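re: ur question from earlier - yeah i can do the single chain one, its not a big deal. heres the input i used so u can compare w yours
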Amino acid sequence: MFTRRGVAEGLAVGVFIGCTPTMGVQIILCGFAAFFLKVNVPVALLGSLISNPATAPILYPLEYKLGVWLVGIPNAHDLEGFSGALRSFMSYARPLWAGSIAAGAVCSVLAWGLVTSIWMATAALRRRRAEPRP
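and the output i got, formated as tokens:
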């Protein structure tokens, strides 16, 4: 649906999912989420491209640092029972997910606000132009 609500919420859904570390399946996740939330699916899919092979090396380290700031780094005691690669993965996964969800929430709200503001400003400008001049 190509309405202000559908486009704004579709972009917000896409940006949120695009900020999560789900590269490789984020298009599929985004498509399903947009379909079930009844928002603009093509806009949501475009919004998920915020993370791509060119931006991921910048985006994910920043989200990890944000996650470390939010939840800290798990200490060794929390990782007992895990071995080798799984221990390494778990030490990075928690801060990365926390940072990506926080960044995704902020970026999706900003995307929604930007689309809504531009849509409303454009509609007001069209109404103003359509008014008869005295």
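DSSP finds five helices and no strands in the chain. not sure if urs matches, ping me
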